[in-house]
Amino acid sequence: MVSLDRVADLASIITEQELKNDEELVRPLDRRIDEYAYWEQQIDAALYLLLEKRIMNVHMLRKGIESIDKAVYNKLTYYERWAVSLAKYCLESGILTQEDLNKKYGPPLHSTDEQLFQVGDKVRVRHENYATRWIKPHLRTPGYLYGKVGIIERCCGSYPNPEYFAYDNTDSTTVHHQPLYRVRFNQKDIWSQYEGTADDTIDVEIFQHWLMPASQPYAPTEKDEGEGCHKHDVDHQHKDHDHGHMHEARAIIEQTAVDREGTSLPAQHLSESLVSALIDKKIINPEELRKQIEANQMAGVEQRGANIVVEAWLNPKFKERLLKDGTNTIAEFLKLDKMEDNIVVVENTDKIHNLVVCTLCSCYPRQLLGIPPGWYKSRSYRARTPRNPRSVLKEFGTVLPNDMKIQVHDSTSDLRYLVIPRRPAATQNWSREQLLSIVTRDSMVGVCDVTA
């Protein structure tokens, strides 16, 4: 039975048994540098545009994430949870209708035993741009058949839809059935350079939702024509005309997609569909989405946080103001029109070490440090840091004296934290440029010290 537990802060909902047996929580933090996929950068930027337009707020995002069933939550990646929450809010608030989303995402899966086709019926396989909720090209319908016409050779009965079990198997209590057919195609209609006879055929098993009557109006989309695939009747014989380039191009595109995707993610397609639907409805536009992605990327590149730390090292009066009023001091120093969040600055000393975490989601000083690293957003870091900070610090090579106090800051709401790490004694005569080179993102979160 699916758990009805909802996600709150991970520090309290993670049990001791999970800490000992959950694979993600048991193994060391994955600290490899993140290279975020474009769809992740898109959903990240889309949220910030919706916030700027006052269409929603971050609390609504959190509410949606926390409403996800715990068992499902644990199977989703960080940005997949964002996609689920954003989609839910857009539908509930009326920003998008279900029809708006379905145009991009595909219609909901339904179960039926009703056979729409009989032996001898002429059918066409839906086009590759057919909106489906399942990740392409990993479908049970071969790409070389998209748009092709064949004849029902046999009605095979009703079977569970394998696409559902491949990409939406979180509900093990539901089984979706669809009629399955064997469809017979003429080989020469499919392969432009087929070397066999005109009577050679190929039979393929295809589920009903991928078929349409051959008489139904059909034409390639503008996208297809833009990709170099010209419009033509897919039911004709390929005589005196070489269509080989279409099939070869499609094979290359599909293989490239397979190579690029890696492990397929259930909510990735939802995320891409949601962003596309928001653009279609003119809630956001492609240019502002591109600019927001660029802004998110540049915050870390510009070394804003590192410049603040170095100034604090070099200017005692600046540090004093910084510790008292981080928000206004930083805005003035960086010449920013506004601060997106209130910043609290804390200082590591020989007696106290500060460590930042967010157990509710992953609140982070993005305006200063850029997009948070994967380990900061992970279940493991958020669940373990409040419980055993010394163990987490040790994974980063930070072993502190037993008499040093560790101050954990759980950034759960409207405050963001920036740690001023201890300045190495050997850097007293260093220039500003030399000091900037040793200040790391991780040191400003508090998981490690700065080394010369």
Automatic annotation (TrEMBL):
Pfam annotation, one family: NHase_beta_C
InterPro entries named among the record's database cross-references: CN_Hdrase_a/SCN_Hdrase_g_sf, CN_Hdrtase_a/SCN_Hdrlase_g, CN_hydtase_beta-like_N, CN_hydtase_beta_C, CN_hydtase_beta_dom_C, Elect_transpt_acc-like_dom_sf
Catalytic activity: an aliphatic primary amide = an aliphatic nitrile + H2O
Domain Nitrile hydratase alpha/Thiocyanate hydrolase gamma: 271-447
Chain ranges passing through the membrane: none
Enzyme class: lyase
EC number assigned by the record: 4.2.1.84
Example of a GO MF term: nitrile hydratase activity
The organism's place on the tree of life at top rank: Eukaryota
Nitrile hydratase beta subunit domain span: 112-212
Ranges where the Nitrile hydratase beta subunit-like N-terminal domain occurs: 33-105
Keywords: Lyase, Metal-binding
The protein, known as: nitrile hydratase
